[in-house]
Design brief:
The protein has 215 residues and is of the alpha/beta class. The chain has five helices and ten strands. The structure holds adenosine-5'-triphosphate and magnesium ion. Pfam families: Terminase_3 (PF04466).
Amino acid sequence: MSILKIPTAKIFERLLKPARYKGVYGGRGSGKSHFFGELLVETCQAERGTLAVCIREAQRTLAQSSKRLIEDKIASLGLGHGFKLFSDKIETPGDGLIIFRGLQDHTADSIKSLEGFRIAWIDEAQNLSARSLALLRPTIRARGSELWASWNGLQRRLMRVVEARGRRIGWDSIVSDTTDNAVSANNFIQAGYRLFEPETPWAWAHTLYWRKWLH
Ligand SMILES: Nc1ncnc2c1ncn2[C@@H]1O[C@H](COP(=O)(O)OP(=O)(O)OP(=O)(O)O)[C@@H](O)[C@H]1O
Ligand SMILES: [Mg+2]
């Protein structure tokens, strides 16, 4: 018998235990995707026949899925012999399966194909719509099933902190900017910021500026 040992950062440790919901949020590059990617591969290796689905809100191609990350994890953990890679799915030990889906394309009927799946991992969950979550939650109901979500939540928390401080000290508005970052731009729009054209732009030529009035 061989034993698979994967070191885990302390902050993620409590997510190793079984739970119906597991969520992580944090800033860019904080290890969220790698943690769940590893946990998924490790779980499929340890529990034969695990059925898992990796979810995005929108997934037009597999390049927009977690497939590549999971394949890299299988390789770096040295587990290539037990997993079979296909163009659109990964077969895991004991007739298990990892598939990749965009929920935007699902209907109340088509989502039923996911019943029986034990793990659903939503990465980039800050983009998940309320509709998609409402479809997914009652569908993932196999015994011991788990819903994992990882999202980029730091920015919105920071926004709220800065806004509260701005209000307290009497600012009229807050202006911020994004460059080549659609997720971040969406965060600003959803938080009530609107596109702003400053008289003297201070960043790159294609930077977008966002403003929110505080009063
Ligand atoms: N367990 C790990 N093993 C190896 N590398 C890791 C691990 N965790 C994080 N890293 C390194 O840190 C980088 C960022 O990690 P990751 O992509 O998981 O961040 P993230 O929190 O998902 O970021 P984003 O919000 O941008 O999606 C990775 O590209 C990788 O180089
Ligand atoms: Mg990530």
